[in-house]
Write a structure and sequence with these properties.
The chain has about 350 residues and is of the alpha+beta class. It folds into 2 domains: about 140 residues, no CATH class; about 140 residues, no CATH class. Helix content is about 25%, strand content about 25%. The strands form 5 sheets. Strands 1, 5, 6, 7, 8 and 11 form a 6-stranded mixed β-sheet that branches. About 30% of the residues are buried. It comes from Neomoorella humiferrea. Pfam families: Germane. This is Spore germination protein GerM.
Length: about 350
């Protein structure tokens, strides 16, 4: 055999190196096409998927909060619509559109629209994305009422506990001096008339024109205690609203609480004869009963109310409202007919 020529040895090594390179390259590129590349581990934020906020069943009414005509108080009103599972979306749209009736006014700046409403992995927290017109709020007081109306409206809906507000898709940490850097829970009071350090109770009075019931938190009346809030609420209702509140009492002046008891979910309220001194007027009678019912049934242990007058059951009030049997909480509060 002829000895191997140096040139042939160099060609051989070159061929081996070239073949090795080709095989390595084929292994690399072949791996990309032969199987899918493992997805990188996503972080907690990017792993969240937007989901529409849908109820498990269709509903056709919701409580939406507007303002009294003078802009002082938030007023819950019942609005009905074609039954849908998108109750939260419908509620916010109704809130932004305003009340469309006399005696109330909208709480949001003009032109605010809903861009999106959704939940992420925490189904109890709803994200509300509004247009930039929200930033036109004039001051902190207006911002507080607008935000509170939105949170109150949404947290009335099943399973909604927290609200995050966005503007044009971006988180908002402050609105006219109002801090919004954490999810917003339902506020403890709706319209508070108490001062720092005072103990209070929520009752329902009428607005200045006696058209709508307004929930307000007032100081505990004299002789009432925080340990017996239902009784305190009745006493506060009988005392009437503060003189400078621009609200109207729903119970005739001079009416006294003769007896009060709670048993098996039934509150029995015995009032003096002055309770019927209004003498007539269906609006006054409706306001009397509804304010009493909404005031008392806010407490978890009460679902029915029996009204007595001078210790006796009566079948009817002067305008024909039946009170002979226990009454339950009305289905609609300040119902707006569309």
């Amino acid at each position: 055999m002829k000895p191997d020529h140096p040139k042939n040895r160099r060609r051989g090594w070159s061929f081996v190196l070239l073949l090795t390179f080709v095989l390595v390259l084929a292994g690399i590129t072949g791996g990309c096409f032969s199987k899918s590349k493992p997805a990188p581990q996503e972080d907690k934020v990017s792993n969240k998927v937007r989901q529409p906020l849908l109820l498990t069943r269709e509903l056709g009414q919701v409580l939406v909060y507007y303002l009294t005509e003078d802009g002082t108080y938030l007023v819950p009103v019942t609005i009905t619509f074609t039954p849908t599972r998108e109750v939260a979306k419908t509620a916010v749209e109704k809130l932004l559109a305003g009340p469309q009736v006399d005696g109330l006014k909208g709480v949001m700046p003009e032109g605010v629209k809903l861009r999106d409403i959704y939940v992420l992995d925490d189904l109890n927290t709803v994200y509300v994305d509004l247009t930039k017109e929200l930033l036109a709020v004039q001051n902190k007081e207006q911002a507080e009422k607008a935000v509170k109306a939105l949170v109150l409206t949404l947290t009335n809906i099943e399973n909604v506990k927290y609200v995050n507000i966005l503007v044009e898709g971006q988180a908002v940490t402050e609105l006219a001096g109002l801090k919004l850097n954490t999810p917003l829970a339902r506020p403890e009071t709706i319209n508070s008339l108490i001062k720092n350090g005072q103990e209070g109770v929520q009752v329902y009075f009428s607005d200045a024109k006696a058209n709508f019931l307004v929930p307000v938190t007032v100081p505990l009346p004299s002789g009432a205690t925080a340990g017996d809030l239902p009784r305190a609420a009745v006493l506060a209702l009988l005392a009437g609203p503060p003189a400078d509140s621009n609200l109207v009492r729903t119970v005739w002046p001079g009416t006294r609480l003769l007896n009060f008891s709670i048993a098996d979910g039934l509150a029995t309220v015995d009032l003096s004869k002055e309770v019927t001194a209004y003498g007539g007027g269906s609006a006054a009678e409706t306001a009397l009963l509804n304010s009493l019912l909404f005031t008392l049934t806010q407490f978890p242990g009460i679902n029915r109310v029996q009204l007595l007058i001078e210790g006796q059951k009566r079948e009817y009030l002067p305008e024909g409202s039946a009170i002979g049997a226990p009454l339950t909480r009305p289905e609609k509060l300040n119902f707006l007919k569309r």
